[in-house]
Amino acid sequence: MKIIKNSYLVLLLALAVTSCTPEKTSFTISGTIENTNNEEVSIVLFNNETKTDTIAISNLVDSSFQLTGNVEKPTKVLLFVGHTNIPMILENDTYNVVLNDTQKYVKGGNLNQIVYGYLQQTDYQNAKSDAKQTAEIVFKDIDWLDKEAVEFARAKNNEKTAITYKIQNKYMQTILEGDYSELAKIYTLSDNYDWKNYDADKRIELYKTYNEALSQSHPVANEMIQTLTDYKIIEEKKLSIAPGKPFKEVIAKDINNEEIALSETIKNNKYTLLEFWASWCGPCRGEFPHLKKAYKTYNSKGFEIYGLSLDDKEDRWLKALKEEDTPWINVVDFKHFKSDAAVAYFVQGIPASFLIANDGTIVASGDDIRGFALDEKLEELFK
Length: 383
Known about the structure:
- Keywords: Cytochrome c-type biogenesis, Disulfide bond, Redox-active center, Signal.
- By secondary structure, the chain is an alpha+beta fold.
- The protein has helices spanning 2-20, 110-115, 122-138, 147-177, 182-190, 200-213, 219-237, 262-267, 282-286, 288-298, 314-324, 340-344, 372-381, and strands at residues 27-32, 40-46, 52-59, 64-69, 75-81, 84-90, 94-99, 104-107, 251-254, 259-261, 271-277, 303-309, 329-332, 352-357, 362-365.
- The strands form 3 sheets. Strands 10-9-13-12-11-14-15 form a 7-stranded mixed sheet.
- The longest helix has 31 residues, at 147-177.
């Protein structure tokens, strides 16, 4: 009886402490950042692809900072230190930022610790650091037109990157299949890229299950259900622009504000490459050495490139054109991904490429004509 009474007393004391602990009404994020130039620190909420909200902002003073504020509910945000960003789930709690050569995470907050706990794991940090070092070594001073060198570098880089994703996916799978809250699972799944084990249909099913378990549906789950549903619809519609299908007309303006129709370009050449890109897209501009080589080799034989920029600012487009000095047809549509051409070809990411024959038939697209694959395809067509 004495043991029972003591246990009961401990339970009562624990409940008393819990009930007397006030709910936190604000957040505090602090940290000391190594090797910095006293850059700006901010918390940014991405509402959609074009709109952002800055929740809090501060400057580093002697490599240290502190951000304070409050949120009405747990919110997925990015913490920016200069150009470096760290994902986190922000609640009214206390957080500490760790950012150095080998570590990059925000510690604190119940949901944040669950969802982004893998960032604090030593094996993940080591794998991430190893992948970074490998990339720096294999891509240093590389000749992007040397097929063997590029393929070797990419293989090494992919090998190391795959290890980080394997650790991350395993951690997330533990959360999604474990005894964790629906809220933790919603945020974890929204950040998960393991499409092999979690395809679009399974994700939609899981989000619906999480919503049913909550007292009311969660906005992140609803948003992801809609995004995944739209994705499935677009994937079906993409069949209309698959190889073998006819091209869709594009009319855009060049540097002189004159309209150039894709159909005219196709009519005047044996093969035309419709290339979607933008000044801010690193991989797009990384394709230009291959495109220039292909253009130099096959332009006189009837090959043309219709380079359509999805930039939303004219000065950036013009600056990129001057820097890249591209010899082919350059046009732009400042409506970004909402431009008629981007909508017609269901462009959701760039670079996006479509090789079109003189009769208007799409003969190849996507990764099948990226980099050295384009060289091989053109060699085959112009035999």
